[in-house]
Amino acid sequence: MALMPVADALNAVLDGAAGLAEEQVGLDEAFGRVLARDLAALRTQPPDDMSAMDGYAVRAADATLSAKLKVIGEVAAGRPFARPVQAGEAVRIFTGGVIPNGADAVVIQEDTTRDGDLVTVNEAASPGKHIRRAGIDFRAGQILLKKSHRLLDRDLALAASMNHATLPVHRKPKVALFATGDELVMPGNAPAPGQIVYSNGYALRALTRHEGADVIDLGIARDTVAETAAAIRQAIDAGVDILVTTGGASVGEHDVVQQALQSEGVEIAFWKIAMRPGKPMMHGRRGALRVLGLPGNPVSSYVCAILFLAPLIRTLTGRTDTAWPLEDAVLGTDTPANDLREDYLRASLQERHGAPPLATPVGHQDSSLLANLSRADALIIRPPHAPAATAGAPCRVLRLPS
After folding, report:
1. 309-337 pLDDT, tens per residue?
2. Which pLDDT does position 363 carry in this prediction?
3. Strand blocks (E) in 172-294
4. At what angle do helices 6-14 and 310-317 cross, to 10 degrees?
5. Using the 8-state DSSP alphabet, how is residue 98 labeled?
6. How, if at all, do strands 131-132 and 143-145 pair?
7. Could you tell me the residue range of the domain that residue 310 belongs to?
């Protein structure tokens, strides 16, 4: 099977993907979720003309410099005044109080002198002064939050003010993940000769949650078709939207994932991509279930998850900004010519004032080196057949999550 270009592989993974079904969630559960439809205000805010300051509600025509007005009552927030303000009258008012009928201005407390039930105006009023007009924020029926918008913290405050207790969002994707490999042991155990500590799942589960999905950990399956197929059936029975496997995707006699997937009715869409690291990644489908078979090498696994799993999750959550933004940078060191595979070099970024950042590969690029991956800020993208480049040459980078 020929190596598939990265862009074509991503298109295949995302083909037909769309936001999952709508569900209603409470405001406290809506942060980071994506609206399934436009959200209109259920009320006008503020609902009435209100005072923006502590002071006196007056008729501007009466509140001239040195005028003395009779104080006939008080307005606090939530306690409107019952009767209109007449000529020569004023009402003590506090911030957030409803402007009484007849009044058209507020004289702030600092610009008055109070003596019993009389108040002297020390700064003449003008119509509308210190009044928040009804609807100055928004009006009932106005669409303020759009479909496909990913809800931020301040959006939740707005939605609450719009009088929504629940919000229509796309259902979170459900992701199941398991690793394959007789050589894997869990962290905290002493590996026997030839064994390694399992690490891939921790980064992948964190990335999955960060991108807005729920994840089920199905553990480690040994290198047999039967045990691998059993883990696949667990994911199918759980009704997940995405199944992620790590390891067993290559061509060795112990790489059984592809055979196990096919035995459980998964149709393989592609296998092997023209990229480094991550060449042996595979993708398949079984009905609505989408499968990503990631390589076992931890850096390969993570890079493939960044490039394919994250955009797929984003698409299923209803987001439209599914692609990672790429940035201009400058190479910090000479880089050799590339072959037919697209390279994703782990690199550190040095920010520079008024200039693109300096991107320098972090030592050896072997796909098993997690310490180098941990030190990386970004991936330098080197297209297939890119010529050798010298330090200072322009390049493109994908910033890793921080």
Report:
1. 999 999 999 999 999 999 999 999 999 99
2. 86
3. 174-180, 184-185, 196-197, 214-221, 242-246, 267-271, 275-276, 282-286, 289-294
4. 30
5. B
6. unpaired
7. 6-20+172-317
